[in-house]
Amino acid sequence: MTDALPRPLLPFMQFSALLRANDFSVAPEQTQSFVAAVGLLGPRSMEDIHRAALATIGPAPERREEFDAIFRLVFLGQTVAASTTSDMDDEEELEAFDDRDGGQEPPETDEMEESGGAPTGAERLFARQFGGLSENEALRRFRRQAPNALPRRKSRRLAPSKGRGRLDMRRALREAVRRDGELVRLPVLQRRDRRRRILLLIDVSGSMKNQTDLYLRFAHTLAQATDRLEVFTLGTRLTRITRALRRRSPDQALALASTLVADWDGGTRLGDALQAFLSVPRFAGAARGALCIVMSDGLERGDHTAMTDAMERLDRHAWAVLWLSPLAGEDGYAVETAALKSVLPHIDRLGDGSSVASVCGEVLGFERRLRA
């Protein structure tokens, strides 16, 4: 039924439906009043819409927090709670963050201890300072080669072609009229090539501390090379940083990303973060038909069932899955962790993510290796 509604009304209908699904009493007349109130207010900010929702729906005071969370989910896409399948406490519920909240101050850390290299489920929140390293030759070469080397797919749109293809009847008739019925060559159409969407999932947990700068700089270079890219960080939280990486200056882009991500060098909850990603339709849609690149060592803590299930679902959505691990660059490397072994059937390639050059080579040559 919602398909027939004007697009601006969809969030309001979804909001009411989600409230009812969570045992709020919302009459159809209240939804109409909510929409009418927003129309009368001519809201200049999301806060005006929130106040209209409170005034017309009137949630019980004891459920105000839950009401606000549903509002943020529908209208801001900001926070989505994912069920925690590991042995974490209920209070350590994983959340997904959209980069539309950019610019806010990062949370302060309560502890001054250095994060270790071992995976942990504990959450530590603080900002990260990126060094002013200049872009190295590998990234410059990657930016030059990426437009032609990144995976492409056939679009449904047709374009004139000099080769074989479908007869372009319109052009053929036009040429026939112009040349008194004589056609020298039959014009044909072919499906256009279009760059395939890329989904980049970067593990920023403590065990990946030494690679985080490298991966973020690669992500910024990739964002400058293609406009069909989505980038998320995974740790104890899921954060979308695509918009931050669109900044042309790498220093500005990484500084903005630093304020968006709160769980730098924190704990490892890959399974829960991936489940949170897939639970948001707008996020999961970015994986559909895309090349999904996971940059992580795969050192999941505790039960890896959630991670295995998430990778199986991600594999069904994506065109292909490339997993880049810094450990894969070691001589004689073999997968030993149960978590990474369990997701291997859902990965098209486990590649070397130990250096900038190896990451660039893996991404540029992935389509060629896949077809070989």
Can you characterise this structure?
This protein has helices at residues 10-21, 28-41, 46-57, 64-76, 137-149, 169-178, 209-225, 242-245, 250-260, 270-279, 281-284, 305-317, 338-343, 356-364, 366-371, and strands at residues 81-82, 94-97, 152-161, 166-167, 188-195, 198-203, 229-234, 238-240, 291-295, 320-325, 349-352. The relative contact order is 0.12. By secondary structure, it is of the alpha/beta class.
Number of strands: 11
**Average predicted confidence as pLDDT:** 81
What proportion of the residues form beta strands (DSSP E)?
15-25%
Taking strands numbered 1, 2, ... along the chain, how are they ordered across the largest sheet? 1-2-8-7-6-9-10-11
| Overall 3D form | globular
What's the tally of helices?
A: 15
- Structural category is alpha/beta
Assign a percent range to the helix content: 40-55%
Distance between the termini: 46 Å
Helix and strand arrangement:
Layout lengths: L9 H12 L6 H14 L4 H12 L6 H13 L4 E2 L11 E4 L39 H13 L2 E10 L4 E2 L1 H10 L9 E8 L2 E6 L5 H17 L3 E6 L3 E3 L1 H4 L4 H11 L9 H10 L1 H4 L6 E5 L9 H13 L2 E6 L12 H6 L5 E4 L3 H9 L1 H6 L1
Parallel strand pairs: 2-8, 6-7, 6-9, 9-10, 10-11
Antiparallel strand pairs: 1-2, 3-5, 4-5, 7-8
Helix pairs in contact: 1-4, 2-3, 5-7, 5-14, 10-12
